[in-house]
UniProtKB/TrEMBL annotation:
<dbReference type="GO" id="GO:0003677">
    <property type="term" value="F:DNA binding"/>
</dbReference>
<feature type="domain" description="HTH myb-type">
    <location>
        <begin position="71"/>
        <end position="93"/>
    </location>
</feature>
<dbReference type="GO" id="GO:0080090">
    <property type="term" value="P:regulation of primary metabolic process"/>
</dbReference>
<dbReference type="GO" id="GO:0005634">
    <property type="term" value="C:nucleus"/>
</dbReference>
<dbReference type="InterPro" id="IPR001005">
    <property type="entry name" value="SANT/Myb"/>
</dbReference>
<keyword id="KW-0677">Repeat</keyword>
<feature type="domain" description="Myb-like">
    <location>
        <begin position="1"/>
        <end position="45"/>
    </location>
</feature>
<dbReference type="Pfam" id="PF00249">
    <property type="entry name" value="Myb_DNA-binding"/>
</dbReference>
<keyword id="KW-0805">Transcription regulation</keyword>
<dbReference type="InterPro" id="IPR015495">
    <property type="entry name" value="Myb_TF_plants"/>
</dbReference>
<dbReference type="InterPro" id="IPR009057">
    <property type="entry name" value="Homeodomain-like_sf"/>
</dbReference>
<feature type="region of interest" description="Disordered">
    <location>
        <begin position="113"/>
        <end position="149"/>
    </location>
</feature>
<keyword id="KW-0539">Nucleus</keyword>
<keyword id="KW-0238">DNA-binding</keyword>
<feature type="compositionally biased region" description="Low complexity">
    <location>
        <begin position="136"/>
        <end position="149"/>
    </location>
</feature>
<feature type="domain" description="HTH myb-type">
    <location>
        <begin position="1"/>
        <end position="49"/>
    </location>
</feature>
<keyword id="KW-0010">Activator</keyword>
Length: 245
DNA sequence: AATTGCATCAACCGCCTACTA
DNA sequence: CTAGTAGGCGGTTGATGCAAT
């Protein structure tokens, strides 16, 4: 894309916002496929993108969380993380042991099966947290009976979705506030991820599925830094798990 | 100075999933 | 329930720049 096209695309996004990418080429007057426009915006033009070399703390977080969150790193584009991972880190990683019957569902702020508390009144309810999982995770909570959806039309809504994912009923102020770690890398994790909670689906030999919401940060902070990837099985269960027959 | 090999990173491609009519 | 469409992700490619020879 040329510089002029970048400007057109940027103006278009500023005017209409992100999303409905199929309309972006027409709106911006660009002769590019919708995916190209989206990629250009997300990986290059978006204003809050952090560019330049990865600092040690970021690499630290990446190593610890890559197996769980994939190419998600606060402030960085997925493409950047992916490139860095493939270039530098993949070769160094110890081959992970097979993860039997465990599936980690990464947080994806799409539509939810149940609306979040729009007053940002975090009630630390693990059932609520389960219901707040994106509808893509179809194993989750069929007992709510509420099919209304929640859209992430602005950043606040997405932040709320994360907050909901992060809540821990035992430690209302969040793990990050209760852990005293001196290492700068750990501090970075706390600042960057707060108290991210990870959803893990386990299936036993009889096909019974259990969904567990596990606090990520505490385990991440205790995880080794010797190149091993963090595996879901290393996480200790917490809160009220849900069992689906 | 020219050539070669490697590193980097933006972009492409194909597939999967969610949504909707 | 099904098919079509859009959004998103991961694997991969290709252009470019730089260092080594």
């Amino acid at each position: 894309m040329t510089e002029e096209e970048d400007i057109l695309l940027k103006k278009c996004i500023e005017k209409y916002g992100e999303g409905t990418w199929h309309r972006v080429p027409f709106r911006a007057g660009l002769n590019h496929y919708r995916k190209s426009c989206r990629l250009r915006w997300l990986n290059y033009l978006k204003p809050d993108i952090k560019r330049g070399a990865f600092v040690d703390n970021e690499v630290d977080v990446m190593i610890r969380l890559h197996n769980l969150l994939g190419n998600i790193l606060p402030g960085r584009t997925a493409n950047d993380v992916k490139n860095y991972w493939n270039t530098y880190l993949r070769k160094k990683m110890v081959k992970p042991s097979p993860k039997l019957n465990i599936e980690v569902i990464k947080p994806r702020p799409l539509n939810l099966s149940v609306p979040l508390d729009k007053n940002n009144n975090n009630k630390n309810d693990s059932d609520h947290a389960a219901a707040s999982t994106p509808a893509s995770n179809s194993l989750v909570s069929s007992d709510s009976g509420n099919n209304s959806s929640y859209d992430f039309s602005n950043d606040n809504n997405e932040i709320m979705w994360w907050k909901n994912m992060l809540m821990n009923e035992d430690e209302p102020q969040g793990f990050g506030n209760n852990i005293n770690h001196s290492a700068s890398g750990d501090q970075f994790i706390i600042e960057a991820l707060g108290d991210v909670r990870t959803q893990v689906v386990e299936e036993d030999n009889y096909g019974k599925t259990t969904i567990k919401f596990q606090p990520m940060l505490k385990n991440v902070l205790n995880s080794p830094l010797n190149g091993e990837e963090v595996l879901a099985k290393d996480f200790t269960p917490c809160n009220k798990d849900k069992t689906i027959n």
